[in-house]
Inverse folding.
């Protein structure tokens, strides 16, 4: 099975694009969602997160995502330590998930696919882009957060111009009809490529 990495900066609309692939019957693995589940359920991760952040990392036995985000997006060293705890476990979980899939290809969606080097384990890469202004508006609305908070999160991700060089496909995601058409075209190409 071919593994197609799908990534894009915060607010680029990766979820919308992965839903279009799902609608076409493509298995999709969302690394961020699976990471959050593992951060609740994997005892080793829970223990290491408490060691790294203190007891405040869990509030009423639930992951305190706002607390973690606030800390790591101001401290790159802390973000790297968090990634070293969580990403290897997500990789193992993903590999097990792939074994149970039967489609020609699957999509692995990860926000920091390039930043972690995860793109090297994918057969091809799809990059989702959108104008910065639209991305900021989307995230502020979605997360009910401030402009400065969004910009600090963006600062921890590669710029689109750095990612485009490494991407096999680029989806410009600012109009739903156009985005859906782009996904359909890529799906047709990938279906041929993966058979």
């Amino acid at each position: 099975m071919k593994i197609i990495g799908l990534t894009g900066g915060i607010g680029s609309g990766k979820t919308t694009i992965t839903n279009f692939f799902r609608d076409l019957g493509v298995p999709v693995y969302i690394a961020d969602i699976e990471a959050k589940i593992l951060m609740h359920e994997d005892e080793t991760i829970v223990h290491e997160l408490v060691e790294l952040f203190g007891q405040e990392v869990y509030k009423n036995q639930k992951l305190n995502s706002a607390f973690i985000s606030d800390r790591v997006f101001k401290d790159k060293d802390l973000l790297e330590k968090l990634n070293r705890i969580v990403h290897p476990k997500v990789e193992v979980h993903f590999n097990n998930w792939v074994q149970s899939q039967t489609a020609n290809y699957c999509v692995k969606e990860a926000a920091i696919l390039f930043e972690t080097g995860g793109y090297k384990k994918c057969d091809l890469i799809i990059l989702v882009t959108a104008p910065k202004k639209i991305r900021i508006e989307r995230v502020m609305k979605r997360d009910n957060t401030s402009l400065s908070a969004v910009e600090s999160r963006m600062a921890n991700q590669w710029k689109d111009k750095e990612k485009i060089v490494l991407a096999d496909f680029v989806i410009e995601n600012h109009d739903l009809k156009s985005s859906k058409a782009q996904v359909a075209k890529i799906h047709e190409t990938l279906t041929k490529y993966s058979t």
Notes: Residues 76-99 form the longest helix (24 residues). The two ends are 9 Å apart (CA to CA). The chain is about 55% helix and 15% strand.
